[in-house]
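Structure request: DUF853 family protein, Thalassobius vesicularis.
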Amino acid sequence: MQDSIFIGGGGENYGDPQVLALKYANRHGLIAGATGTGKTVTLQIMAEGFSAAGVPVFMSDVKGDLSGIAKAGSEAFKLHGAFTERAGKIGLTDYAYSAFPVTFWDMFGEQGHPVRTTVAEMGPLLLSRLLELSEAQEGILNIAFRLADEQGLALLDLKDLQALLVWMGENRADLNLRYGNISPASVGAIQRRLMVLENQGATNLFGEPALELADLMRTDLDGRGRINILAADKLMASPRLYATFLLWLLSELFEELPEVGDPDKPKLVFFFDEAHLLFDDAPKALVDKVEQVARLIRSKGVGVYFITQNPADVPEDILGQLGNRVQHALRAFTAKDRKELRLAAETYRDNPRFDTEQAIREVGVGEAVTSFLEKKGVPGVVERTLIRPPSSQLGPIEPAERRRFIDTSPIAGKYETLKDRHSAYEILTKRAQDAAREAEEAERREAEAEAAEREYKSARRYSGTRVSRSSSRETRSNSRGDTMGEALGKALVKELKGTTGRRIVRGILGSLFRSR
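Returned structure:
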C-alpha cells in the first residue's frame, strides 16, 4: 500500500529524496515562489501523486494549462530528454508516462460541468464579502436571511434575494420595530452591488442543481482518485468571486464531512491557487473564518494547500498551520522583498549544510527548498530539492479532447440543465399579485360606495323626478331670463301652495259658500 508521494530528490549539492507522507498530508501545505519558477509543475506532480494513492483532488486552473493531467506525456514532447535525465538523477527508476482520471468543472459551463451553489448555502458572511458591503449593509443582508428562514422563503438564486430585498423595502415600516432600521438607501446599495455581481457572471454560480460534494470525492474504477479541475482563467477576471467561491467550498466541506481524526490518507486534497486573492482587503471576520476552517478541517480528512507567490501573502496564524512546504525561488529586488525573504527562510527548520535564505534566492526553475512533516508530525529539516517531472502531459489539451472527457464523465448531464423551482421570487411575486388584486377590488368597492352615496344624496335633494345637471343649469339659466312680472307670478303661485296660501284660499272659498 502506497504511504507517501515522491516529490523530488537530490544529486550533487542536494539532499535526500523528499516525500510527502500521506498520513500527514491532511495537515495542509504551501507551494510558493515567484512567477515562472515551477509552481504549476509542482502542483501537477502532487495532484498526480494523490490521485495514484486513491485520494481525490480539487484544484483551480488559473492559467488554463493543467488540463494536460488528463493525457499521458509523450516522448515527442520537447522536454522529454530533460525529464528522463532528471528522473535518473533523482533516483526515480519507475518513471513512466501516464494519464489520470479528470473531471472538468466551469462556473460558466463552457469548459466543464456547471458548478453552482444557492444563495442560502453561500450565507450572509461570504455574500457580504463578495458584494463588498459596509457594516450597515451587511446587517440588512443578515435580516434578509433571517426573514427568509422565518417565512419559509427559499433563497436559491440572485432574483430570489433581489425580490426579498424589494419586499423588505416596501414593508420596512412594519419590520423596523422588530429588526432595527432598514434604510432604503442601504437596500438600494445592496441591489446595485447585486447588479454588478450579475454583470460579472455570478448568475451562473447561484441556482440549482447545486453541487454535491460527493461528486468531488469520487475514485475511478481502478481505485485512483479523480482530479477535479475548475476552469478559472475566465473566472480570474472577477477575483473576488473566485476567492469567495473557493472559500465557500472549503466551508461546505468543513460543515458536511464527518470527523475522521487522522486517517492513513486524506479523503480529499484541496489546492487553492492564487491564495493571496482570499486575503486581500479581507475583513477580520473573514480571516478568522479561514483560520477556523484551516485549523479544524484536517480532522475531517481534508488537506488544504495554498499556492501563492510569497508566503507573506498568507496571514501568519494560517501560515503556521501549513506543515508541508515547497518553496520555489523568491526574488529580492527591494528592501521589502529582502525582509519577506528573510522571514520566509526563518519558518524552516535549519539545515547546517547551507544557508536557507540564500538557497531560496538561488534555486532555479524546477528546483525548490522543501520541508515535509515527518514522524509525529515534526517538520523535516529543510532541503534543496530537484522536483520530479510529471507523468502526464505538460500543458493544455485540445478543446475537442476536453469536450470528449466532459461528455464521457461519470456525472455527464447531471448539472447541465438549470432548474428553477418554486422559491422566494415566485412566492413574493404571487404575494404582490394577490395584494394588487385585493387593492384593485377594494378600490372598485370604494368607487361603488361613493357612487351609491352620490345617488342617495341626489334622491334626497330633488325628491322627485331626477333632473340632470344640464337641465338644472338650463332651469337656472331660464330663471335668470324671467321678466319681473313672471317672477312675481311665480312667487305668488309658490306662496299659494304654502300654508298661508291655503288659508287664504279657504277663506275666499268659505266666503263664497256663505254668500250663497
